[in-house]
Amino acid sequence: MQAQLAVASRATPKLFTRVPPPNFSNATHRARCLAQLRSKTNGLEKYIYLNGLKERDPTLFYSLLYDNMREMVPILYTPTVGDACQNYSHIWRRPEGLYISIGDKGRIREVLSTWPHVREGRIAVVTDGSRILGLGDLGANGLPISVGKLDLYIAGAGIRPSSTVPICLDLGTSTQKYLDDPLYIGVRRPRPSAEEMDEFMIEFMAAMKDVFPDLLVQFEDFSTDNAFKYLDMFRNSYRCFNDDIQGTGAVVLSGFLNAARLSSKASGRPLTEQRILFFGAGSAGVGVAKQLLSFFKINGLSEEDATKQIWTVDSKGLITADRKGLQEHKKFFARTDYEGPPLTNLIDIINYVQPTALLGLSTMRNAFTKDVVDAMAAHNPRPIIFPLSNPVSLCEVDYEDAVEWTNGEVIFASGSPYTPFERNAKTFEPGQGNNMYIFPGIGLGTLLSKSSRVTDTMVEQASIALAQSLNEDEKEKELVYPRLNRIRDISAKIALAVVRAAQAASVDGSPALRHVADNALLEYIKEQMWHPNGPKSRF
Ligand SMILES: NC(=O)C1=CN([C@@H]2O[C@H](COP(=O)(O)OP(=O)(O)OC[C@H]3O[C@@H](n4cnc5c(N)ncnc54)[C@H](O)[C@@H]3O)[C@@H](O)[C@H]2O)C=CC1
Ligand SMILES: CC(=O)C(=O)O
Ligand SMILES: [Mg+2]
């Protein structure tokens, strides 16, 4: 009898259907799992391994993720999630999100209702797979981006796993390779017309609200025209935001605020005279440019003067207002003060604009060549260079090159992670300008305040809170973003700012929080967070 009891106590019923070995302990198993992960040399194999671990033992998976963010985030998120998406139909093991197909039009509510945790749903990340990172139209292979973003909500903001709803809208794909692939997981058809897609999206959003009344929707990686269109269409009637436009805008503004202070210190140039050149003018480039307007406005410039500090470049060169057939989202920042022949070469554009900051959101690998970086350094003692395109295979310049070419003076942040390195006995630590720093806090603050909408001021305040979250060591090392292992603390501070902004905008639905002082509210936010081995949280 005693032997039986001893055996039973070794078994963790949720994890094992058979009795584990006599020497089993959770601590050793944890170390074993990390060793198994580290034994894999290929990123995609690591992704598959972690995916399997999440299925076998979610508590252990999230606990390892929480304690090893710097090692595991680059696997579950950019850059490796890009490989996972591109190969998803081939590496697929089990259902892990919700597919809503174009064929479900007319019965979307019914399909959503099949989700096992309907009443717990709080945050959905929704992609249509049409622009996954900078990798193009991956169709139904885009689901891992929703899963990866939600893992960051769980690890970074303490959202309970069963409250998260990863969704991929399976609407077809324009990528022939996938249509021809016998293992392709999605519907085999071209993407729908704008009219058909609008009808689908209107039904989808109404059904989401019915089925998940407490849900926040994060739109992710929609192609640029649709990203702007559906944000405009839904932001005033549903609790939603677009991560690529608003999340990226907020995270880059935040890093830029810190970078601009460092660069102004070296140049003596006032903050309001920062001149920003965007290389890439899609949903991310224009989203960031719009957010940066607020930087200048906060510093006292009128909207008209602020707009003059920003130049945008697309695949045809410097964007000017006289260009024929300019897409709607490019018009706001199109220059009216340039009268020469079209400027198409980046170095010519830099020499004309004389920017203090060069931000890359172009998907053009190595577009910031040594000559480009030299041109930036010729105009600035400390040039701000942010190559923000994801994944690393599309990044505009590698960290070590940017440091080498500027003799260590560059102020740098990239969209995907780079590792620190030593140069002349100094450690260089790169910033990661990625919306992963901001959306967990925006989501947490929106849920906690029970806001009916996500307003521009909520996004802006999130950005300022992130900028102010650097600790003394990070400031001393001249980092522009905090270190990733502090993300829960940072998300709590961002959430606090978001709650206050929601209250100021009167979109909050939790009036009791209005009377709680900031310090107490911050503690309350932290207490609400889910921990892998802790008590159940509210979210
Ligand atoms: N770091 C972060 O947090 C984020 C990074 N991104 C990244 O930003 C990149 C762009 O995303 P979207 O704006 O949504 O894509 P998009 O396709 O809408 O925009 C790309 C822009 O780059 C321009 N471009 C393309 N080739 C060019 C060339 N040779 N020279 C100059 N411009 C060129 C295009 O004309 C377009 O304006 C992606 O790699 C994405 O992963 C997006 C969101 C967040
Ligand atoms: C980071 C992100 O959202 C993107 O690259 O699309
Ligand atoms: Mg994205």
Task: Summarize the SSE layout with pairings.
Blueprint: H1 2-10, H2 26-39, H3 43-56, H4 58-67, H5 69-76, H6 80-86, H7 88-91, E1 98-101, H8 108-112, E2 123-127, H9 143-157, E3 164-170, H10 176-179, H11 194-211, E4 216-220, H12 224-234, E5 240-242, H13 243-267, E6 276-279, H14 283-298, H15 303-307, E7 310-314, E8 317-318, H16 328-331, H17 346-353, E9 357-360, H18 370-379, E10 384-387, H19 399-405, E11 411-414, E12 421-423, E13 426-428, E14 431-432, H20 439-448, H21 456-467, H22 472-476, H23 487-504, H24 518-528
Parallel strand pairs: 1-3, 2-3, 2-4, 4-5, 6-7, 6-9, 9-10, 10-11, 11-14
Antiparallel strand pairs: 7-8, 12-13
Bound molecules: 1,4-dihydronicotinamide adenine dinucleotide, pyruvic acid (PYR) and magnesium ion (MG).
Can you give a write-up of this model?
It is built from 24 helices and 14 strands. With 539 residues, it is an alpha/beta fold. The protein has 3 domains: 26-238, Rossmann fold (3-Layer(aba) Sandwich), CATH 3.40.50.10380; 246-433, NAD(P)-binding Rossmann-like Domain (Rossmann fold), CATH 3.40.50.720; 436-527, Rossmann fold (3-Layer(aba) Sandwich), CATH 3.40.50. The strands form 3 sheets. The chain has a 7-stranded mixed sheet, sandwiched between helices. The chain is globular, with a radius of gyration of 24 Å. It binds 1,4-dihydronicotinamide adenine dinucleotide, pyruvic acid and magnesium ion. It comes from Artomyces pyxidatus.
